[in-house]
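Q: What structure does this chain adopt?
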Amino acid sequence: MIQYRNAKFKISSPNIEGLGEDSGYEVAFAGRSNAGKSSALNTLTEQKGLARTSKTPGRTQLINVFELDEQRRLIDLPGYGFAKVPLEVKKKWQKSLGEYLQKRECLAGLVVLMDIRHPLKELDQDLVFWAVDSDLPVLILLTKADKLKQGARNTVLKEVRKASENFEGDVQVELFSSLKGSGVPALKRKLDQWFEADAEPEKVVEA
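A:
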């Protein structure tokens, strides 16, 4: 059983050349700069300060690697799509994000985080379509689910699940709240599946 609470920071790099050997299994977390990505990683690992959180979105400018064991790693990718970030900075982030997603052979799955109040923005959809085209499984987490009442949460969940059929790939959608801890079991089940698969990462499919 994978112990996510044992995650420890390994390295930060502006590009894939600084990430070390391309082996084992990695699961990457990606999302818009205000989607709550760092909070989700901290909640998953039960460590308040593992991934930096900030009231100013867009602070994650590097690819951050968190090691679970010798073969498994969590990857915190640069946030994207925040309007107040200077264009040149945006371009650097997008380049490192694209390089990692396109060239990292040990990538086993992609977690895409979206604020439940603003899901399926254009950049989010582009990212999921890219993953599907690459035969990569995707878990969409609708974050900050505590911001909506139960009826509204369920409505958005159904709408996004329906819309995700358009991706025509291995795409699962779940609610998530770092504040309440909801959605953590579903996230762990999916990560366990990706990390423990005997098949090549790109061959992994939903059970």
